[in-house]
Amino acid sequence: MRSRFVLVIALAGLFIAAVFAWSGLFNVAASSGHFKITAWFLHYVMRQSVKTHSIGIVPPDLDDPVLIRRGGAHFETACVYCHGSPLADSSPVARQMTPAPPRLRHTLDKWKSAELFWIVKHGIKYTGMPAWPAQDRDDEVWAVVAFLEVLSTMSAASYREIAFGTESERVAVPTDVPQSKGCARCHGQDGEGDDIEAFPRLDIQSERYLGAALQSYVQGRRQSGIMEAAVSGLTPADIEALARYYRAPAEYGQAKHQSAGDATLLKGQKIAREGIAEKQIPACNSCHKSEGNMPNFRPDFPRLAGQNKRFLIDQLHLFAAEKDRGGTAFAGLMAPFAHKLDNEDIDAVAAWYASLAASSN
Ligand code: HEC
Ligand code: HEC
Ligand code: HEC
Are the beta carbons of 95 and 226 closer than 8 angstroms? Predict the structure, then answer.
């Protein structure tokens, strides 16, 4: 008898809820905001959900200046519109969202690093807080977290340095492409990279490779939340202009021969020139012809000589991981052997290519 009574009450409740929804009386206007109690309840649900879902996530070393610079520069591209920064308020349009995106400086202390990681990677449903565009790039999400960890105590001057680079790098690039100003914040005025090697050099690459690499980000074939945000809105004509602007002064710059002094460099030199026979790893130089005044096997392959060591290491780890790094139409050529490189091989071969000075004559 009692259970039948409960059932009737429950059905009546559902019916009333359905009629209320059908009537259109519920006010979905963002302009009216939430009742205090609703806002509190929704935030409580969010906090508990983030807490539970971030159990077991272990942060890497977040004091790394390279991570902080990468994360901060991306924050300027993709987060300031909603959350503001030490230099700028959020957009008045974003402030009309319900819930309004918080000024993060004031709220960050409440969160552990693993929780911030979860929020930035997955976003928050029903709030407008977006998920990370490249779900396989946890390394990039950690870069943003490394930056958030220092944001609450950051002065406007240090924010400027982290988001825009040093003074010399902050000048707009003279192309007709509106976004090119953003490129210089990370890659330097002429694509020479930045002091702490947080970003790759562009000025050693051929126009063909630069164009193909940019296309692969635009089309989502190369996973990087940082670059996907930076290239959004570029037209094919913009890409051509940028590739022409940043290309190496001569199509194939000559790498100065460096005498391989220490053991690591010697090991790297050997991998580059001969590969590792017992692991069936081919000579890298057979495709990335980086020594002497030689063209690459194809002009749309990337040059490695003179590239930042940190970038080479990070990219080799992406190729070596099981997840697909993606890239241009030829990216599959790295897959058969990249996972056979161990950490020592990667460090050695990256050190070798980074030690080769890439010059144009
Ligand atoms: C389109 C607007 C929008 C963009 C872009 C955006 N966010 Fe958010 N974000 C929000 C909103 C809205 C919330 C509030 C969610 C809530 O209160 O439940 C939020 C919440 C957060 C929180 C939790 C803050 C707190 O204390 O509740 C963090 C951390 C955060 N965002 C970081 C970022 C980062 C980092 C980026 C850039 C990669 C970013 N957001 C981009 C709208 C945005
Ligand atoms: C917020 C910093 C940032 C901005 C802004 C940015 N980049 Fe990048 N760029 C990166 C990072 C980080 C990578 C490495 C991404 C990866 O892991 O695939 C990269 C990679 C690249 C590559 C591939 C390099 C290679 O050797 O494979 C090209 C080309 C490039 N960027 C061009 C540009 C251009 C052109 C712009 C302006 C429209 C731009 N970037 C804006 C950070 C940035
Ligand atoms: C069969 C040809 C081939 C061989 C051999 C080869 N690569 Fe590659 N490599 C490529 C191609 C093609 C790409 C461009 C991937 C893309 O489309 O983004 C690439 C990309 C790279 C990149 C990323 C560069 C950038 O600017 O983004 C690194 C680092 C790299 N290779 C290192 C190596 C190393 C180290 C070896 C030797 C162990 C090696 N490669 C051997 C063809 C090759």
Answer: no
Is the separation of the CB atoms in 317 and 346 below 8 Å?
Answer: yes
290 lines ligand 3 (CB under 6 A): no
Please state which CATH class domain 55-162 belongs to.
Answer: mainly alpha
Distance CA 208, CA 239 (A): 11
pLDDT, one tens digit per residue, over 96-138 is 999 999 999 888 989 999 999 999 999 999 899 999 999 999 9
List ligand 2's pocket residues with C-beta within 6 A: 70, 73-74, 77, 179-180, 182-183, 185-187, 199-200, 202, 210, 213-214, 222, 224, 226-227, 230-231, 242, 302
Ligand 3 mean position, distance from CA 334 (Å): 6
Summarize pLDDT for 8-66 with one digit per residue, the tens: 999 999 999 999 899 998 888 888 888 899 999 999 999 999 999 999 999 999 999 99
Q: What spacing in Å lies between the alpha carbon of 46 and ligand 1's midpoint?
A: 12
The answer, yes or no, to whether any atom of ligand 1 lies below 6 A from the CB of 99, is yes
Let me know if domain 168-246 sits in CATH 1.10.760.10. yes
Please state which architecture CATH assigns to domain 254-359. Orthogonal Bundle (1.10)
Overall pTM > 0.90? yes
Domain edges within the chain: 55-162, 168-246, 254-359
Question: Is 254-359 in the same CATH topology as 55-162?
Answer: yes
Beta-carbon count within 10 A of 61 CB: 8
Model confidence over 282-305: pLDDT tens digits? 999 989 876 655 556 677 899 998
b/e 12-27 (16+ beta carbons within 10 angstroms → b): eeeeeeeeeeeeeeee
